[in-house]
């Protein structure tokens, strides 16, 4: 009688990952902007001994600060949590203020995303508080988990903080001489997560390609820098079933990170209407659309397609922006359609609305728009992206077709997996329970596969 190999879910992935983050499983719930990755979601994970990241993107800093305080008051000192630290390419001051907040609030772990290069703020977070332990190794109180989809970015995170940035932080008195010296012996991030085709911003990478490539890169840089603890490589993107999680670990991932499936849980900070729509999504029900925050750069996001016009409308707006130098040069019929169907207002009314916001928040962007008709078009179109997100999160019943709901195909696979079980209903889905089921399911899949390989091998040997 064959027995399945007992693969233990709590031993999947890296032991060092579990030890350093103080977690039961090498499993992470990734951040989701504007508090969709809510304090309740992170608390639920932390209480279950699992790591979740607060979705700080797009939230005002006083809200982030309040949420961090909530987490610290609610979770015990041994219960894990972290917060998202998004690159703010054009606004380094915002990065600095975010790091001030993280250091003040004692945020132990930052999920760094959208970085194209290391910035002084990120380095300051990583390096502040470095100390040499009695055994000679370096203790780093601020952990960075970097999400990357390209090896050249991974290389920067797997390397020590850049010397010139350390020097300038030291010269400015922002870090001590000792911190700067010790920084040379640690990587920017001990955890680098290879993000394949995912919900939200995506380069649509392929996990089968990315994970082994990042692992080789890690080995190369580990050899070069000789860190006492080798950095770890994780996998994200497309993980919504036990089989997919098992495959990630079989590829060699040190940890796994999920996103889309967590948006369709009780704890996610979005509307019930969105969760209802997500619960009915299948694997083919997502689409790639332009991203509102990096609109002019042509960045892409993956969103829910079923039941909405958002991906088609967003793409149309992007095409108009690319093809026309001004709103006035767009043909009259298209202008009427965009104004009446997409905006529900005239172009100029939207501009007047955005003007009020930009006057306060980003006056130099407004000046640019006043000089350039094309830039004016971009500002107005970005209003649609902002609103479509708000309509979805608020569950506005009149704007359902315009909902922008970031989501990848992992959720469709998850929905199929739980079809016909109580978890078909999102009201029965809790983030920590999904983690438990996926990790135990992955262990079962691996046990069964390994047992079957062993059986086949014995069969061949006997024949
Ligand atoms: C609704 C939603 C919002 C997201 N927002 C962010 C974000 O603000 N910052 C971030 O680093 N990642 C964000 N992500 C990406 C997730 O943290 C995670 O990396 C990704 O969803 C994993 O791929 P999957 O969706 O295939 O599971 C978001 C994902 C979703 C679905």
Instruction: Tell me, briefly, the overall form.
Output: globular
| Structural class by helix and strand composition | alpha/beta
Round the Cα radius of gyration to an integer and report it.
23 Å
Largest sheet: 8 strands, parallel, barrel
Low-confidence stretches: none
N-to-C terminal Cα separation, in Å?
A: 19 Å
Bound chemical compounds: flavin mononucleotide
Portion of residues within helices? 40-55%
CATH architectural designation of the largest domain = Alpha-Beta Barrel
**Spatial order of strands in the largest sheet:** 1-2-3-4-7-8-10-11
Helical element count? 19
Q: Find the count of extended strands (DSSP E, 2+ residues).
A: 13
Name the beta content range: 5-15%
Would you give the CATH topology of the largest domain? TIM Barrel
Assembly annotation: single chain
Mean pLDDT figure: 96
**What's the number of structural domains?**
2
- Assigned CATH class of the largest domain: Alpha Beta
CATH superfamily of the largest domain: Aldolase class I
Descriptive account of the structure:
With 463 residues, this protein is of the alpha/beta class. It folds into two domains: 9-274, TIM Barrel (Alpha-Beta Barrel), CATH 3.20.20.70; 309-404, no CATH class. Helix content is 50%, strand content 11%. It has helices at residues 15-21, 39-47, 61-74, 92-105, 120-127, 151-158, 163-171, 177-183, 207-225, 242-251, 260-263, 272-279, 310-323, 332-343, 347-361, 363-371, 373-394, 410-418, 431-462, and strands spanning 27-29, 51-54, 82-86, 109-113, 131-132, 138-139, 143-148, 191-195, 200-201, 232-236, 255-258, 286-290, 300-304. Strands 1-2-3-4-7-8-10-11 form an eight-stranded parallel beta barrel, surrounded by six helices. Strand 10, helix 10 and strand 11 form a beta-alpha-beta unit. The longest helix is centred in the C-terminal third of the chain and has 32 residues, at 431-462. The mean pLDDT is 96. The structure holds flavin mononucleotide (FMN). Flavin mononucleotide (FMN) binds next to strand 3, strand 4, strand 11 and helix 11. The site of flavin mononucleotide has 29 residues, from strand 3, strand 4, strand 11 and helix 11.
